[in-house]
Amino acid sequence: MVYEATVSAPVNIACIKYWGKRDTKLIIPTNSSLSITLSQDHLRSTTTCRADPRFERGDRLWLNGKEEVIKENGRTWVCIEELRRWRRAMEEKDKKLPELSEMPLRIASYNNFPTAAGLASSASGLAALVSSLSTLFSLPQTPSQLSLIARQGSGSACRSLFGGFVAWREGLASDGSDSMAQQVAPETHWPEMQALICVVSDQKKATSSTAGMQATVETSALFRQRLQVVPSRMDAIESAIKQKDFESFAKITMADSNTFHACCLDTTPPIFYMNDVSRSIIQLIEQLNKANGKPLAAYTFDAGPNAVIYTLDKYMPVVIKAVQRFFPPAQDLEDRLNVMPAVEKA
Ligand code: 2P0
Fold first, then answer.
1. Which fold has domain 1-188?
2. pLDDT for 107-153, tens place per residue?
3. Where in the sequence of the chain do the CATH 3.30.70.890 domains occur?
4. How many CA atoms lie within 13 A of 286 on its CB side?
5. Which of 209, 234, 301 to mutate to test the pocket of ligand 1 (most atoms within 8 A of CB)?
6. Which mutation among 115, 159, 166, 213 tests ligand 1's pocket best, with the greatest number of atoms within 8 A of CB?
7. Pathway involvement (predicted)?
8. What is the rounded CA–CA span in Å between residue 285 and residue 299?
9. Residue nearest atom 15 in ligand 1 by C-alpha distance
10. Phi-psi label, residue 31: left if phi above 0, alpha if psi -120 to 50, beta otherwise
11. Is this model's pTM higher than 0.90 or not?
12. Residue bearing the CA closest to ligand 1, atom 12
């Protein structure tokens, strides 16, 4: 008998950023964060887990077709072992259950977008791993309880276990037992909210989030100030979401993205995630918002140069038109250069 489960999980993009850990092993953050889980199929990880007593001993994992070593006590290992522990407890209570906890696992995960390019691949990847394994093990735990495990795989992954608008509460406990994600509002609450992803670069980033955030914790004075403002931003954005107040939502989202990148710049040595194109996108959105008299779009940037622009469906055509006008897609640009004789000669 082969036991198998396949689950996919989407990317989430934070409006209030997670940046810094107070416990690097348990992945307990220095501040709460809030994100929107993208509901379309473009940015997802799909993971299949299979348990079979005939497999050779030891678990194995493939990411986008390439085998990755599961390091003992590493993040993936911790997630698998914690879920296995929960399964074992079920099997001890109910002796009729198949002993899945004793079987070696084979896990294959695919991202349908560039891995590690600042598009939150670790969030969807670890969320898909935890979801598929908990499905395989038929675990009764709630998504918030599962988020305690996903968090230990990659902090932002705990938010991808929910759709819609999701908060990750930093929690007070030193063992991380209350540092979990919860849904603030489902995706149906504000269906007009849309995200435009502008891929500025799909190259792997130079400074990983894990390394970057701890460098910030250790060296940035501005980071300590940010920690003072995050709680009020969390309250304000949650009420903006509940009231569908786009203007407030947009102002807070842009402010927190800018504070986060200012903290990166204030790190020693400084971390530059945004590039000139990223900054031009900020200027474009700021100008659009100014011309409109109030925000019609909000930019936010994670640990990479790619922009995510949140807007409402009624404004999306205006935003796309502006972005396409100033940042024509690469192919368009090439076609245009091809018809320019001066360029051809050169
Ligand atoms: C976020 N980021 O809230 C922030 C904004 C990047 C910028 O969560 O070390 O890959 O695995 O816990 O989850 C990226 O951090 O870091 C991240 P680890 P993770 O989405």
1. Ribosomal Protein S5; domain 2 (3.30.230)
2. 999 998 766 555 767 899 999 999 999 999 999 999 999 999 999 99
3. 190-346
4. 9
5. 209
6. 213
7. Isoprenoid biosynthesis; isopentenyl diphosphate biosynthesis via mevalonate pathway; isopentenyl diphosphate from (R)-mevalonate: step 3/3
8. 7
9. 209
10. beta
11. yes
12. 155
